[in-house]
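wait is this the right file?? whatever heres the structure
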């Protein structure tokens, strides 16, 4: 046994599976996460995978936390090391007193193991070679076997795993029987040959409640269905492809005419992202609710059409599942690095509405809302997710919808309005909010028509190159952006337990780690007020939060402090007052990282204050 005492915790630890891409391990690893959930214990699962098809290292991390923290914590308590390529790295990432499970079919010298961890070898390869003759079966069932070993050493309820296997392969009895058998072979071997249980245990609890386990891309797609979207134009790109796939599946259930069987939706895979944004704009101009899912490289290609939609004032919804950039960057890693690109997309003076969901529940809510906002404001709306939200399953409240909700189509002039003599100017602001009336194509045989163009025009859509009408139009667009401040979701403010001079601003997938980091900081005597920004443009609450604090930290997952830059530019705040906390290595930001970074800066500020007094 190692000199360091083994970690001893119940329902509070991190398990990391180290596998090879294409080995079929993901479904087995998710089986483990779902089994813990079924025992009433919250989990946060994250799949960390390469951008190739097969052969490179992949990891799957499951945080087991009855206290309910769902962000990445940092550090690993138990690693299931099934990839020889990363064995040394995986072992190095273990906390002192942690546990390592590995395939001992090929013995490893004792000198290669750390002395401060507990090593548990199981000859899984040898067992599979004995039990199965087919090479693919050997690999697949080896994955299920190590779940059996885990179940034994963590003292898990095997009935839950048996039930999950039955559900996963429902209707395929041979597969159910084979997988259940493999699971019990692994568990039985561990019970007979390993010290079961170890210091880490999963004990049945009641901490999950009515929450659901869903990935952000699926929730976003479902939000689009409930939000009235009937057109999806897209080009395949990681990590957003899941939105189009899920939208297609949901439409096949909910967008089929029950009498004729005809599809009441259109999904078009285009030749590139520029084409997909053009199709979205065309469909929306015709009155449909349309969207394009994409990622950073797609937003780069969409710049020209985003400028057209902004200037011609055409509703459009773009869903950006951010990944590591620039260029191809890290296609399967997470970042929040498209903020400035999206906010000011296109050449010239443009500003776009951005929504920042924190997880699947808000992804569903904001996805539906984005279509209302696009119609109300007659402008592109960009839903800013990232890979951590989009491609990972997250425990979240049930997705809720008000069946009495009426879609907000904005200012649309009807044939009756036109016959009544209402003055129609496509770019005429009649009530001071900067938003003009529009008509749908074919509204009236003689009235309400206009020419849609990307060139300058006057309030009645008549072409002009005069400076006065151009300035008039650009200032009206700014007024419309001011109107948007009252329509987008406001920030969520959480005050510290004691009054604080310091504040922290964060957004999106940083949220769960930030919430835990705040508790860690408060335990160390650092009280911070928190503001989770949920949309751009920023409303007055953001200005008030900045003014009411001596210093504010802005936590984000990119190199260039993009949200901080946006805050400084749009709110006119002194840059010295706003301190960036940046994490951008492609892995999800952790509570430990945030807490350590902020504590260090608070410590520096305290030392400077002491020197000033001295």
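ok assuming it is, sequence goes like this
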């Amino acid at each position: 046994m190692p000199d360091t005492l083994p970690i001893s915790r119940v329902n509070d630890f991190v398990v990391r599976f180290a596998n090879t891409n294409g080995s079929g391990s993901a479904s087995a690893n998710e089986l483990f996460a779902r089994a813990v959930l079924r025992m009433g214990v919250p989990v946060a699962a994250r799949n960390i995978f390469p951008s190739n098809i097969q052969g490179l290292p992949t990891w799957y991390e499951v945080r087991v936390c009855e206290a309910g923290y769902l962000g990445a914590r940092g550090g690993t308590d138990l690693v299931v090391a099934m990839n020889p390529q990363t064995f040394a790295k995986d072992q190095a990432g273990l906390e002192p007193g942690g546990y390592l499970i590995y395939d001992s079919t090929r013995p490893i010298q004792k000198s290669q193991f750390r002395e401060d961890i507990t090593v548990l070898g199981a000859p899984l390869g040898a067992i599979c070679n004995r039990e199965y003759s087919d090479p693919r079966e050997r690999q697949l069932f080896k994955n299920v076997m190590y779940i059996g070993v885990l179940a034994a050493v963590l003292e898990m309820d095997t009935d839950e795993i048996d039930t999950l296997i039955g559900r996963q392969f429902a209707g395929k009895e041979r597969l159910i029987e084979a997988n259940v058998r493999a699971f019990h072979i692994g568990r039985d071997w561990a019970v007979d040959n390993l010290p079961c249980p170890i210091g880490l245990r999963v004990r049945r609890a009641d901490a999950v409640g009515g929450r659901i386990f869903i990935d952000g891309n699926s929730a976003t797609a479902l939000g689009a269905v409930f939000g009235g979207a009937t057109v999806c134009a897209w080009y395949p790109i990681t990590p957003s492809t899941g939105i189009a796939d899920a939208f297609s599946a949901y439409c096949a259930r909910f967008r089929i005419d029950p009498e004729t069987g005809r599809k009441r939706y259109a999904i078009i895979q285009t030749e590139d992202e520029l084409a997909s944004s053009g199709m979205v704009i065309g469909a929306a101009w015709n009155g449909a609710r349309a969207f394009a899912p994409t990622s950073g490289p797609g937003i780069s290609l969409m710049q020209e059409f985003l400028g057209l939609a902004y200037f011609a004032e055409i509703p459009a919804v773009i869903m950006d599942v951010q990944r590591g950039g620039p260029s191809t960057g890290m296609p399967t890693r997470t970042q929040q690095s498209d903020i400035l690109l999206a906010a000011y997309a296109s050449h010239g003076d443009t500003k776009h509405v951005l929504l920042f969901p924190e997880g699947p529940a808000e992804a569903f809510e904001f996805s539906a809302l984005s279509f209302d906002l696009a119609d109300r404001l007659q402008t592109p709306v960009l839903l800013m997710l990232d890979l951590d939200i989009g491609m990972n399953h997250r425990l979240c409240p049930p997705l809720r919808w008000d069946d009495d909700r009426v879609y907000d189509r904005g200012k649309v002039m009807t044939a009756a309005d036109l016959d009544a003599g209402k003055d129609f100017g496509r770019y005429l602001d009649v009530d001071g909010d900067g938003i003009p009336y529009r008509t749908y194509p074919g509204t009236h045989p003689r009235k309400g028509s206009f020419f849609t163009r990307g060139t300058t025009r006057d309030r009645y859509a008549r072409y002009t190159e005069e400076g006065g009408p151009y300035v008039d139009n650009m200032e009206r667009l700014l007024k419309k952006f001011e109107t948007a401040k009252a329509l987008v979701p406001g920030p969520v403010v959480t005050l510290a337990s004691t009054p604080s001079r310091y504040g922290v601003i964060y957004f999106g997938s940083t949220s769960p780690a930030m919430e835990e980091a705040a508790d860690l900081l408060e335990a160390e005597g650092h009280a911070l007020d928190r503001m989770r920004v949920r949309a751009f443009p920023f409303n007055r609450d953001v200005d008030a939060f900045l003014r009411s604090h001596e210093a504010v930290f802005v936590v984000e997952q990119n190199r260039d402090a993009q949200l901080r830059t946006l805050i400084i530019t749009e709110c006119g705040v002194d840059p010295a007052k706003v301190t960036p906390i940046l994490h951008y290595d492609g892995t999800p930001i952790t509570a430990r990282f945030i807490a350590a970074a902020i504590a260090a800066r608070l410590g520096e500020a305290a030392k400077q204050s002491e020197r000033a007094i001295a």
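The chain has a mean pLDDT of 95. so i think its the right one actually
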